[in-house]
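G., the chain you wanted modeled:
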Amino acid sequence: MATIMNGKELAKKIRENLKKDCEELKKQGIHPKLAVIMVGNNAASKVYVKSKSKACDEIGIEYEEYFLEETICQEELNQLIKSLNNKREVNGILLQSPLPKHLDINRAFKTISYRKDVDGFTPSSVGKLVMGGDTFISCTPYGVMKMFEEYHIDLTGKEVVIIGRSNIVGKPLAQCCLANNATVTICHSRTKDLKEHTKRADIVIAAIGKAKFVTKDMLKEGVVIIDVGINRNEEGKIVGDVDFENVEKIASYITPVPGGVGPMTIAMLMNNVIKAAKEQNKEDSIF
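Predicted structure as tokens:
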């Protein structure tokens, strides 16, 4: 049976350390602050925004929300972002996705200052990640890497297969794994014979949003499984992209859903806000 990688407990430990960091910064007169922008009334987004607000409260990060009407135009959104770029007291800017279809999220991301890009989505942050520079790493990939670190899973020379090529998870996660000396294959909807790839993998990371898509017969004995998926089944229960009950029997390590990668994503967002506050108050900052 697999070792369960408990993201909930690890995230709790990280938040406790961040709370101490935040207290130290406040003693220096630095008050870390996150600004969150949400456009429209997406129900799932409201839940995510609330969880981020709660995490900020717990750690001591100041927090402000901007709820915008769904009909807002691109220029109005970009102007708000620019105004937050210029607010010295705001250390991090988070634009909650998805946006209404008439808005271009990439244009909005490009407007966010790289110094305040705590989500790690700007071209500058992504470029630095590819080049191996010090930057903000997207929160979910960053959380996954922290879990590897916590459970002493060395990626050197390992075959890593990532199922999913999104800009938010798949692509930055591939760069993180490469930086840790793994051999990385990214699979997606056009991949021929997916099983051929997953069967040889030492580590499989599923991030496609399809409930129980990864099954036992697709994997080899002793595989490490990271399940990034969050789906609701017919009964309304939250499940991952992996058939956990059966895959657990052959895996060496596996993340549960819920309680695995999800809590780590928010913990690493908080980490990035604290990092931003520190960097913005250093005279010799490279940011």
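The domain at 29-117 is CATH 3.40.50.10860 (Rossmann fold).

Shout if anything looks off.
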